[in-house]
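Final report, Chapter 2: Outcomes

The project's central promise was a pipeline that accepts a single protein chain and returns its three-dimensional structure in a standardized token representation, suitable for archiving and comparison. That pipeline is now operational. To close this chapter, we reproduce one record exactly as it appears in the project archive, with the input sequence first and the structure output second.
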Amino acid sequence: MDQHKVLSEIKFKTSRSSGAGGQNVNKVESKVTLIWSIWDSEAFDQEQKSRLAHKLNTRISQEGLLQLDSSETRSQLQNKEIVTEKFLSLLNEALVPAKKRKPTKIPKSVILERLDRKKKNSQKKSGRNVRNYLD
């Protein structure tokens, strides 16, 4: 993944943040929203785009836009850095291909042990039956 190419494709939008800040909250736009169009990106090939779309489908809008917010600090610059790091780590995680599952078979010895345990437990419980005491 070419980070410089990806970072050149993202757009930032600022808005007023909720939370701590006192009167500062009412006049400074410290919340940062990162917007990135997955299908218009030239940093990834079609296969990578489809993998990203599949893994991030809950985060992508119907228009194909990925939006991430950060309002953790009072500083707009720090929020911009935080949301950029979050974005890059999200892309790196989504691009990792899923491991193939290797089907395994339960060993015969394990099956026999389980059946033996069931048989012993059954005998123990049937020994507690009231009819055994009456005879």
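Archive annotation: The domain at 3-95 is CATH 3.30.160.20 (Double Stranded RNA Binding Domain).
This record, like all others produced under the grant, will remain available to the consortium after the project formally closes.
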